[in-house]
Amino acid sequence: NAGVMQNPRHLVRRRGQEARLRCSPMKGHSHVYWYRQLPEEGLKFMVYLQKENIIDESGMPKERFSAEFPKEGPSILRIQQVVRGDSAAYFCASSETGGYTEAFFGQGTRLTVV
Amino acid sequence: TQLLEQSPQFLSIQEGENLTVYCNSSSVFSSLQWYRQEPGEGPVLLVTVVTGGEVKKLKRLTFQFGDARKDSSLHITAAQPGDTGLYLCAAASQGGSEKLVFGKGTKLTVNP
């Protein structure tokens, strides 16, 4: 059973471009969480999704950021018009039933904005 | 805003030594988790504690959840170089929130 797969592992974007980060949850998992980790900072919650629904997006900036988890395919975190401050590691986690008792994190996507 | 304070921030010890790291908050949590993260990787869940006063052991690691469910500790016995990593505590607030709050972590280095 493959773990949570995130791609790309590393992404470089110029200021103003769009970044699309993908997360394929573990097989059978329908709950996905996105977190952002800045250097020397802890992980910060961004958004919680279930299949086709955004449940909690309270940690996601209102501008430029969006997330989706379609019926088929991976969850996508999309950042439009990236700025230097968006440079960070973005992690997703998935669980089968919600809650974190059996949640598993992916290896992350490291976004660098130049 | 619920905050988790972890201490110490950095810890460098010799192989074979014992150590304890702490995770404290002024808030009460329904559960608390400990993760280990290695450079370039995602966090790996070590344990979840739910009941106040609970103690869980994972080989040489002992985790304790405070009686009031506001704090936790991780004790490692006879540390090995393979224990090196960033130890993060995380907690979900009461009410079953799906939003995990993470501490900034303790960066542990175990020297051979």
Helicity of chain B, as a percent range: under 10%
How far the N terminus sits from the C terminus of chain A, by CA atoms, comes to 36 Å
**What structural class do the secondary elements of chain A suggest?**
mainly beta
| Strand composition percent of chain A | over 45%
Q: Main sheet of chain A?
A: 7 strands, mixed
Q: Could you say which overall geometry of chain A the principal axes of the C-alpha atoms support?
A: globular
Low-pLDDT residue intervals, each spanning 5 or more residues of chain B = none
Notable traits:
heterodimer, A: 114 residues, mainly beta, seven-stranded mixed beta sheet, four-stranded antiparallel beta sheet, 11 strands, 49% strand, globular, B: 112 residues, six-stranded mixed beta sheet, five-stranded antiparallel beta sheet, 0% helix
Structure characterization notes:
The complex is a heterodimer of chains A (114) and B (112). Chain A has no helices and 11 strands. By secondary structure, chain A is an all-beta fold. In chain A, strands 2, 4, 5, 6, 9, 10 and 11 form a 7-stranded mixed beta sheet that branches. In chain A, strands 1-3-8-7 form a 4-stranded antiparallel beta sheet, with no helix packed on it. In chain A, strand 7 and strand 8 form a beta hairpin. Chain A is globular, with a radius of gyration of 13 Å. The mean pLDDT of chain A is 92. In chain B, strands 2, 4, 5, 9, 10 and 11 form a 6-stranded mixed beta sheet that branches. A 5-stranded antiparallel beta sheet of chain B has the order 1-3-8-7-6, with no helix packed on it. In chain B, strand 9 and strand 10 form a beta hairpin. Chain B is globular, with a radius of gyration of 13 Å. With 112 residues, chain B is an all-beta fold. Chains A and B meet through strand 4, strand 5 and strand 10 of A and strand 4, strand 5, strand 9 and strand 10 of B.
